[in-house]
Amino acid sequence: QSALTQPASVSGSPGQSITISCSGTSSDVGGSKYVSWYQQHPGKAPKLMISDVSNRPSGVSNRFSGSKSGNTASLTISGLQAEDEADYYCNSYSSSSTYVFGTGTKVTVL
Amino acid sequence: EVQMVESGGGLVNPGGSLRLSCEASGFTFSVYPMNWVRQAPGKGLEWVSSISSSGSSIYYADSVKGRFTISRDNTKNSLYLQMNSLRVEDTAVYYCARESRDGFHMDYWGQGTLATVSS
Question: Which of A2, A45, A110, B9 could form a disulfide with B115 if both were Cys (CB 3.0 to 4.6 A apart)?
Fold first, then answer.
């Protein structure tokens, strides 16, 4: 149950696009249809942003999109806005019926 | 409105015990699997445990296996986490999170309760 690997930080200017990677193994990200992404603002509970690799829940901006290739999943935020500044975590349901989170990425809007 | 309110956190000595509770409202609690997720101060999210809607299937992270017990009472719309043999590294905000019925992800989260293990 090792944590998935994410970059510690990613930054971009307003209006730009950024991509956060999430690297795992064939036992989790690579072998799972169930990769999700969560946004967490300081002092707040996490919020689901993407489920099942690329599905966007109702109410989540279409500026957020997800994808996966092999053992690496990605979250892209387009048209970056100040309100997007937060921590982002990927998550995968694994072959052992457990969940594993990513190490987390701090997004800074310059 | 879906709501989950955690309680039971506090300060405990190493080796001690705590029982966390999560009271749910605004949805049919008995048909949803539930999870506990924790976050140590300044650190990332860590999945702790999950329980199926009926309570018949339970899973734990290796870091808590044998020390923590997850349970639920569907008549009280409540989820529990019994934490024994607590260690300093168990200090964290503990969140309860509802698992979606159409996929393996957590669609709603409580605000969390802080458990501090320190002498």
Answer: B9
Could you say which residues from 77 to 106 on chain A have a Cβ atom under 8 Å away from some Cβ of chain B?
Answer: 87, 89, 91, 93, 96-104
Q: How far is A33 from chain B (nearest CA, A)?
A: 9
Cα–Cα distance, A29 to A100 (Å, whole number):
9
Residues A39-77: tens digit of each pLDDT:
999 999 999 999 999 999 999 999 999 999 999 999 999
| B33 in reach of chain A (CB within 8 A) | no
What is the per-residue pLDDT for A1? 75
Contact A110, A22 (CB under 8 A): no
Q: Contact B93/B85 with Cβ under 8 angstroms?
A: no
- CB of B87 within 8 A of CB of B117? yes
In angstroms, rounded to a whole number, what is the distance separating the alpha carbons of residues A4 and A14?
A: 28
What lies within 8 Å, CB to CB, of A14 at 6+ separation is A80, A81, A82, A109, A110
Element (H, E) at A38: strand A35-40
Residue B57 DSSP code: -
Query: Average model confidence (pLDDT) for chain B?
Result: 97
